[in-house]
Amino acid sequence: MYQFNYKKVETIEEAVNELSANPESKILAGGMTLIPTMKQRLASPEQLIDIRNIKELNFIKEESNNIVIGSTTNHYTVASSDLIKNKLSSLSRLAEGIGDPHVRNMGTIGGAISNNDPTADYPAACLGLGATIKTNKREISADDFFVSLFETALEEDEIVVSISFPIISDSIYMKFPNPASRYAMAGVFMSKNTSEVRVAVTGASENGVFRWTEMESSLLNDWSKSSLEEVKLSPEGIMSDIHGNSEYRANLVNIMAIRAFEGINE
Amino acid sequence: MSLVELEINGKKISQDVEERQLLVHFIRDDLNLTGTHVGCDTSQCGACVIHVDGKAVKSCSMLAVQANDTKITTIEGLADGESLHPVQEAFRENHGLQCGFCTPGMIMAAVDIINRNSNLDEKIVREELEGNLCRCTGYQNIVKSILAASEKM
Ligand SMILES: Cc1cc2nc3c(=O)[nH]c(=O)nc-3n(C[C@H](O)[C@H](O)[C@H](O)COP(=O)(O)OP(=O)(O)OC[C@H]3O[C@@H](n4cnc5c(N)ncnc54)[C@H](O)[C@@H]3O)c2cc1C
Ligand code: FES
Ligand code: FES
What we know:
heterodimer; A: alpha+beta; Uridine Diphospho-n-acetylenolpyruvylglucosamine Reductase, domain 2; Uridine Diphospho-n-acetylenolpyruvylglucosamine Reductase, domain 3; Enolase-like, domain 1; 3 domains; five-stranded antiparallel β-sheet; four-stranded antiparallel β-sheet; 14 strands; 24% strand; globular; B: alpha+beta; Ubiquitin-like (UB roll); DNA polymerase, domain 1; 2 domains; 5 helices; 5 strands; 33% helix; 16% strand; binds flavin-adenine dinucleotide; binds FE2/S2 (inorganic) cluster
């Protein structure tokens, strides 16, 4: 690992000031992505700004029919929260399936979405529930937040403060994990309320997480097995690697969508 | 350099560390507690698992400076003098190890699994061991050891 400076901050303001003063610095949250990347020398920030001590970023609450989660809340805390289990169990189940217990004890929701790994789980929940991401500057809808592979709408001096998920009880996440890394080979987050069906797909596309609009309109038009099976994901633009080629992955997405649909109907 | 003050296995430490030093290297190289192992460079094997403020974490994926002001337990801190911790005893009784490389991480993970789950069964143990790899045992006796230990704790 290359040498860097380390700064632990106590407030959002302090973190933002440090970021603005030194553009070569990076936020350190759980470090479950950043530290392995730095170990491999794929990242070499001049300074790390450790935000895990910022108390106002670590919370879970219910607010006007939304579950709001502070950005440094770790995956274990989300998975074991009684409030989330009762109100939005699809999110608890998703958090419970990230990596392994040790990773869940450190990794944070803010880090997971800011990183926007194409195989990460939380981005699918954000898109699949129509979440809103609050930063130190503004509110961004999930539809606008995830731009492309490892790319988000966040500006250089912008940090994620919280994520607000609408409580939609008819929602579910189905993931086919890579057996070695536990990241998604294909993951589908589906939700349904009276006016909208959302189907978000992670792990599959070369451009990262996306909304499968064709499937959404088909299911909104007619919530049935036959309209689900009418739509098949095209392998074009779907990732291909040693774990599976694009046809295989596209088919996995189709299957995860069927499981999600069946799960909601249960 | 940054000053790190922490408590490890009940002992208070105060020492300057390089910011880029990983916690596992601080523990092994500076504190000479070599029970904590390094088995990979991809944060996947779990040979390095320790407890920081009571939570199981991978010490190869954490900086020593991040551990400032924490309480750490490593495999060396489990036994009470000559008497082994119930999980260590169960691994011994049930042949839960072969070469032993993964064992310190397995045992630290196992203590955490037992602490968090009041009603353990084989399925839960296997799921919970997702972050710990063993190249020798095939896991069978590791699972058996953890279930046996959970009865005694
Ligand atoms: C073995 C292993 C298995 C894993 N398996 C999975 C899996 O199955 N599914 C999955 O989704 N993930 C998985 N992960 C990743 C894990 O979920 C990470 O926690 C997550 O990707 C990053 O969160 P973090 O808090 O560790 O962020 P860090 O590593 O600290 O930061 C990641 C990036 O986000 C930036 N950042 C962090 N917080 C903020 C913020 N509040 N505002 C702005 N920028 C910020 C950082 O600057 C950095 O660029 C795995 C990781 C490991 C090591
Ligand atoms: S050394 Fe392999 S996970 Fe830490
Ligand atoms: S006993 Fe050899 S790696 Fe587990």
